[in-house]
Design goal:
The complex is a heterodimer of chains A (434) and B (227).
Chain A (H helix, E strand, L loop, with lengths): L2 H14 L1 H36 L6 E7 L16 E7 L2 E6 L1 E2 H7 L5 E6 L7 E4 L6 E2 L2 E4 L9 E4 L9 E5 H7 L3 H4 L3 E7 L5 E12 L15 E4 L1 H12 L7 E2 L2 E5 L5 H11 L3 E5 H44 L1 H9 L4 H37 L1 H6 L11 H28 L2 H6 L2
Parallel strand pairs in A: 8-13, 10-12
Antiparallel strand pairs in A: 1-3, 1-15, 1-16, 2-3, 4-14, 5-15, 6-7, 6-11, 9-12, 10-13, 11-12
Chain B lengths: L1 E10 L6 E11 L4 E6 L5 H8 L7 E6 L2 E2 L5 H11 E4 L11 H12 L5 H10 L15 H13 L5 E5 L7 H18 L2 E5 L3 H5 L3 E6 L2 E6 L3 E2 L1
Parallel strand pairs in B: 3-8, 3-9, 6-7, 7-8
Antiparallel strand pairs in B: 1-2, 1-4, 2-11, 4-5, 9-10
Classes of the chains: A alpha+beta (434), B alpha/beta (227).
Amino acid sequence: MRNIDLLRRGLRNMRRNKSRTVLTVLALSIGAFTLTLTLGLSNALKTSVNTQLAQFANGVLTVTLAAENQKTGVAEFNANVTATKSTQIHGERATILLLSKEQIDAFAKISGVKRVWPGYNISAEYLQLEGNAKKYIIDDIIEQSYSDQTKNMLAGTYPASWSESDIVLSQSYADTLGLAPSDLISKTVTVGFLDAKGKNVEEIFTIAGVLKKLTGFGPGRSSATGEITLSIDSIAKIYESEFAGIRDYNQFTYANVLLQTAGNETSVRDAIAALNKNYSVSSLSDIVSQVKTVLNTITYALAGFSGIALLAAAFGIINTQLMSVFERTKEIGLLKALGMPNKKIRHLFSIEAILIGLLGASVGIIFAFLLELFVNTVFKQRLIDVGFGGRAVIITLTSVLVVAAGLGLLSFIAGVFPARKAQKLDPIQALREE
Amino acid sequence: MIEVKKITKIYGQGPASFKALYEVSFKLQKGANLAILGKSGSGKSTLMHALAGLDRPTFGSIIINDKDLWSCKQKEIDAYRNQMVGFVFQDFYLQNEETVLENVMVPLEIRGVADRKPKAYEALARLEIKDKADNLTSNLSGGEKQRVCLARAIIGQPDILFADEPTGNLDSKTSEKVEEILFRLNEELGTTLVVVTHNEDLAKRFANKIILKDGRIIAHEGKELTV
C-alpha cells in the first residue's frame, strides 16, 4: 500500500470517529499550547534581557579583590585590611578587599588592555540649566559607556570621543523642564557637588545629547529619575574633589579594564590572575551566561510542566488508538486476509497516531499564536513600560517546529503499542470477532 | 495446480487439543472447480483457510504452482493472498462507511496500484452492479453486497477464487444469480474455483467435489481431482 493511501485511510478513520478524535486532539492541543507559550515567553524574556544587557559595554572587565573566605563563624577583625563588603555567597561568607590606585594602574601595563579606571562612587547635589533659575536634583551619575548608544539617543549625539565638558542628560530632565530634547543640545548646565570639606563646588558642562528614558527595571526607567552621564575624566576630577584627604581615598571596590578587542579577554584575565590569585574578574559575557542559565532553567521547568500535560495526552492517544484497534478488528482482519503486510498495518495505525499528534500540535500552536497576538497588541504600551520591548510572547518558527516535531514523535511513540496490537491480530480470528 | 499433501491442523495443546484436519491430500487441476462439502465442524473452512494462505497447517504442505505455500516467507504469503487469490466471504466483510467503489478497490490499494478505478468499474460491470459504484455498501441488499464482495475478489484477476458459503446469507433467487456469476468467472476467466458449501443444489453444479467428515476426506468425485 502506498503511503498516500495509508494517509487517506488514516484521515478517513479520524473522520469516522470524530468525537473521539476531537477530544484527543483537544487534550494534546492543551499541552502544545502550554509548551508553545512557554517557549514564546522564554524567547520574549531572552530578547528583553539581551536588549537590556546590550546597553552595557561589552569588552569591559570588572576586577575585584577577594579576601580569604570565612567558612564558619564571624570573621576576625584585621586593622590592616579594610573589609568593604562582607556577604554570603553560596552559603559562605565572602569579604571583598579594596583595590589601591597602584594595583589598578598595574592592569594598564597588561598587553591587550586599552584603558583602566577605578570604579568611582561619586554623587552630585544639583543640576541647573543656563538661563533657568531652578535647580534639579541628580539621582545618579553614570560614566561614559563604550557600547553603542546611538539608538538610545533622543536628541544630539552620544560622544564618540568624550571631552571633560561633555554631558548627556536623561529624558526626564527635558520632560521636567518642559523643553524639546533638541532644544537642550549645546546648552550649558552647572553641576553642583560638595567637596571633601563640605564646600559647594560647581562644574560647567555642555549638553551633547539627551538619552531616551530606559525601559525595564532599574534606575533611569522612571520619568522622575534624574540621571547624567559624564566622561570618565570628569568623574575622576569630581572624585578628587569629593574624596581627597579622607579615609579610603584612592581605595576602590572594583576596577574597570577596557580591552583593545573582545578577543583579548582570556589572555587579559590570565594576566590579571597572574598578578594576584585573589583577583576576581567578571565581564558582560559572564553576566549573559549566568542570566541565560537562569532563563534556560526557568524555561526547562515550565516546559517540564507542559511535558506532564503532554504525557497525559499521550495516554489519551494510546487509549484512542486501542479503542480504534478493538473497533476495527474486522477491518484489520479483512485487510490482512486481502494481503496487507503486517508492517503496513502497523504503519497505518502509527500514521493515525502521528496525524492526531500533529493536529493537536496545530490547534495548540494556533491558539498560542492568537494569545500572542492578543497580549502583544492589547498590552503593548504596558509591556514597553516594564521593559518587555512591546512583546511578552515571541513564538518563533523554531519553537513551532520543535513543538510540532515533539508532538509528532510523542504521538508516534504513544501509537506504537496499539499499532503492534493491530499488527499481531490473526486475520481469521479478527474476521470472526464480534 | 493445487496439490495438498497430508495436511493436518491441530488447534490447542495437550488433552484439550482438537484435530480439525487429519492428513488431507488431493490434487486439483488449474482452472477446475471444486466444492468442499461436509457438516459443521468437518474441517471445510479450515481446509479452505489453509489453501488461501490464511491459516497455517500444523503438518503437511500445500503446493501452488510448484511452490510450497507455507514454506514461503510471510511477505510472499501476503503477496499470494493479494495477487493470486480472491476471497468471497459468507458475511461479506464490507466497510459500511465506504462506497462500493472504495470497497472493491481495496486489493489494488494494498497492492499499491495508483490508477485502480478503471479496473474497479470493470469488475463492477462484470458483476452488473456498476450503477451502485458510489453507493455506501450499508445501503445495499444482501445479493448486491455479495456481488460487491465478488467484484472485490476478482479485481486483482486472481488465479484461484475461494468462496466460503457464498450463498449462505442469500435468498434462492439471489443465490442463483451469484452462482451463475461464480461459474461464469470460472469458465470465462479460467479462474480455479474452490467453494465451501452446505448447499447440495449448488454442490451438484461442481465438476469436482470432496466431502469431509471429522477432518478427513470421506468421499470425492471429479476428473480434475486426484485424491
